[in-house]
Amino acid sequence: MRQRFWGWLDDRSGIQAMLHALLYERLPRKIGWLHVLGSGALFLFTVQVLTGMLLAMNYVPSTSEAYESVQYITKEVPFGKIVRGFHYWGASLMVIVVVLHMLRVFVMGAYKKPRELTWLVGVMLFVLTLGFAFTGYLLPYDQKAYWATKVGVSFVGYVPFIGEHLKHILYGGEELGAPTLTRFYAIHVLLLPLLTIPLIAIHLMLMRRKGEMPPGAEADEESHVEKPITFYPHQLLKDLVFAGVLLILLFLLPFVWGVHTEPPADPTDTTYLPRPEWYFLPLFQLEKVQIGKVVLFGGARVWLGTVLIPALFVLLLFALPFLDRSPSRRPRRRLPMLLGAGVLLALTVWLGIEAKVETDRERAHLAKGSDTPRFTGLAAVGQRLVMDRCLRCHRVDGQGSRKAPEFVRLAPGESSPWTKDQLVLYLVNPKETHPNTVMPTAKELGLTSLDQLEAVAEYLLHYKPIPRKRGTSSSSYHLE
Ligand code: HEC
Fold this sequence. Notes:
By secondary structure, the protein is an all-alpha fold. The protein contains 17 helices and six strands. About 60% of the residues lie in helices and about 0% in strands. A hairpin with a 2-residue loop joins strand 3 (about 290) and strand 4 (about 295).
């Protein structure tokens, strides 16, 4: 029965010959572990497509519900946490693996004749990978998403002449808001995959057509290189081992470093320090490079750093096989080339590290700034306790969570004045006055002495939120 079905299928489809051609491709003996990076990128892309589909089943691309729906996926949906962890870390791993793959091809000189087209399509895939990353991190619609996207799109706005138009198209209006999120979502789940999948197919086809480049062989020696091994089982096994390693990392990373989510996007929060995802940090930092006291790309020159240099870099990648036409492939004979690339890479890494160091410093500075004792005496003691015990739910001075209200109505003279004693009584057991509240009792919050309670009450009675500059609300937009 099985035999007959197989025979029928093969007769109609020619599947056996196809599989044979796929699995028994002949490869040079020196193909090795470095060649698993390409298939690793393909594996990660597949993981992103699968987990992306699962996420899309519960995600709502609207500014009012996106954040909640992501929380729902993480907290309620079976395996939602794992799926989101995979997708979140898969993005970072994908960028790493794709870049390593490109570096390998570069160092081995495999972009040269006759494989220029494969390289060209590869660079397109690299740009698309960054496109996925950029459009993806707006989707959870938390603070980081909102502000980092604003920074990213502002770069687009620096394109000479048409920048403002491009920005308008990306935003779907004047400002980042409801139409932006839908647009980014459509680009992320429709446009980019529709471009990427055929390009991957073409990339693989081209690679098969000219064959894997025999490592270490110059172009004129290539036709003499023996091809003694076959893709299956030799290389396939290595590819599978690497896929296994990536899979383990996808499980481990969310465990070790978690899946980072910030409070929901707040367009009015002017105190937030926007920072992009790590792989965009070097570009972000480029804008700030200083020589002496002069900001290299400041003022009218800003487009040089944010548009021209990145564009030139991508163009350089595209043009590489046509600019570098020397036939040698062996790294030893291409030292100036490798050195140039090494310097470029080192500069990029340096910019990234610089950005990280500066961000940490500014964050620390901000945290200190908002802790400045605007209070003295008992209220200052209370302030420290509140910062320590209450930010898990309440929001104070622009920090903490939004699960519970900010303490804006407590001071005497406000709409609902509490006396200090009432406040202390409330804190001791909130359920007494608000039977259904989730607000924990003082004891549960570790406020055990009356002194502590009085200090907290004293602080709350004097707390005034920092006045904020009003920004445009995220729901405002203009139809084009
Ligand atoms: C587990 C989350 C949680 C923590 C931790 C928490 N609260 Fe609350 N708190 C709430 C919630 C939710 C409310 C909203 C009122 C309700 O549910 O009835 C609230 C309400 C209040 C109110 C009434 C505010 C108003 O405007 O009516 C005060 C005062 C208050 N909390 C003080 C504190 C203080 C002080 C701390 C820290 C020592 C603290 N809370 C820690 C969840 C929390």
